[in-house]
């Protein structure tokens, strides 16, 4: 089994609102996302220029912290378990919101 570590950047867009994108830098071990570590990402609305950084924890939760309106915003993000390929769906949901993102770009950084 391939244990080589590689850094990759994944860009996804919301299938219901293509102007909303998520970018995450991930460490891959072989063809899978390396588990047990935190990753950093950015949610962006290209229509109004909003950019919100988040931490993707080892449980697949995108944690935006309390800097946006005072409440901690956490979304379940299936990027750690979903098959990652161009056009593949990846779930993104919270108690109030549920959508599918789709992979639009995968770039190997190192």
What does this structure look like?
With 110 residues, the chain is an all-beta fold. It is built from no helices and 9 strands. An 8-stranded antiparallel beta barrel has the order 1-2-4-5-6-7-8-9. 17% of the residues are buried. It has strands at 5-14, 20-29, 32-33, 39-45, 50-56, 61-63, 74-77, 89-93, 98-108. It has one domain (5-108). The chain starts with a strand and ends with a strand. It is globular.
In short:
This protein has no helices and 9 strands.
The order of strands across the largest sheet is 1-2-4-5-6-7-8-9
- Give the tally of β-strands: 9
Rounded Rg: 14 Å
Number of helices: 0
Distance between the termini: 20 Å
Overall spatial form: globular
What structural category do the secondary elements indicate? mainly beta
H and E order? EEEEEEEEE
Measured by DSSP, the beta-strand proportion falls in over 45%
Helix content bin: under 10%
Characteristics:
mainly beta, 9 strands, 0% helix, globular, 8-stranded antiparallel barrel, 110 residues
Topology of helices and strands:
Layout: E1 5-14, E2 20-29, E3 32-33, E4 39-45, E5 50-56, E6 61-63, E7 74-77, E8 89-93, E9 98-108
Antiparallel strand pairs: 1-2, 1-9, 2-3, 2-4, 4-5, 5-6, 6-7, 7-8, 8-9
């Amino acid at each position: 089994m391939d244990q080589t570590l590689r850094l990759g950047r994944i860009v996804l867009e919301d299938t219901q609102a293509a102007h909303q994108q998520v970018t995450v830098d991930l460490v891959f071990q072989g063809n899978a996302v390396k588990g047990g570590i935190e990753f950093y990402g950015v949610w962006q609305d290209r229509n109004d220029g909003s950019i919100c950084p988040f931490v993707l924890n080892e449980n697949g939760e995108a944690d935006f912290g309390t800097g946006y309106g005072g409440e901690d915003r956490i979304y379940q993000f299936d990027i750690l378990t979903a098959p990652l390929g161009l056009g593949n769906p990846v779930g993104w949901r919270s108690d109030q919101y549920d959508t599918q993102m789709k992979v639009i770009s995968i770039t190997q950084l190192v």
